[in-house]
Amino acid sequence: MTGAPMAVDREREDLVQLLDEQREMFRIALRGIDDEQARRRTTASELTLGGLLHHIIRCERTWTKVLVERDENAEQKLEDYADEYTIGEDETVAGLLAEWERVAARTTELVRSVDDLNVSIPTPTNPWVPGRVWWSARFLILHILREIAHHSGHADIIREQLDGANTTAQRAG
After folding, report:
1. CA distance 168 to 165
2. Smallest Cα–Cα separation from 101: which of 11, 26, 12?
3. Is 147 helix (H, G, I), strand (E, B) or coil?
4. Which helix (H) or strand (E) holds 10?
5. Ordered alpha helix ranges (H), 70-136
6. Alpha carbon distance 64, 44 (integer Å)
7. How much is the pLDDT for 70?
8. CA distance 140 to 143
9. Of 43, 83, 117, 148, whose CB is crowded by the most CB atoms within 10 A?
10. What is the distance between the alpha carbons of residues 107 and 100, in angstroms, rounded to a whole number?
């Protein structure tokens, strides 16, 4: 005899699905590039595909830490972001993607298990928002989603400048 099926929290599963879909769009922009290409600038911007990947991983890791710790005294300083958009000499695309998989799994676990999506979470103060701001857990998760989606667009432009590939064509092919 089997037990009754577990109730699915549709909102949480929708958030997980959207995060997974946006991560996949970002990964498509990286499909087939090597480490040298990941470091190459293709526009007037300093952004690179590897640098964006580095940032996305840190962003997701940082915001899930905020969600868990709920530290009312947390602060971020400008110098904390000095290498935010830089792929390190010892980093590889494959290594960063593997790290992102671990970070993403942790995020998924938190989305499914956070006590209440309406709970107020204190965000760290930082140079661009010096006062303490409180976000709901839901808003914080949506912020992670927004960051991934925002930078997926950047990645698509950089990739198209790099070798003509774009996410839409790669996704279809």
Report:
1. 9
2. 26
3. helix
4. helix 10-30
5. 93-113
6. 32
7. 97
8. 5
9. 148
10. 10
Which residue would you say has higher pLDDT here, 76 or 143? 143
Q: How far apart are CA 162 and CA 173, in angstroms?
A: 18
Tokens of 46: 């300093």
Question: pTM here?
Answer: 0.91
Q: What is the pLDDT of residues 18-55, one digit of tens each?
A: 999 999 999 999 999 999 999 999 999 999 999 999 99
Span 98-125, mean pLDDT? 97
Given a cut of 90, whether residue 7 has pLDDT beyond it is no
Calculate mean pLDDT across residues 140-149. 98
Question: Which whole number is the average pLDDT over 64-90?
Answer: 93
Residue 35: what are its φ and ψ, rounded to 5°?
-65, -35
Sort residue 86 into left (φ over 0), alpha (ψ -120 to 50) or beta: beta
Three-point CA angle 51, 30, 39, nearest 5°: 35
The confidence score (pLDDT) of residue 1 equals 45
Contact 74, 125 (CB under 8 A): yes
User: Cα(63)–Cα(141) distance, rounded to whole angstroms?
Assistant: 8
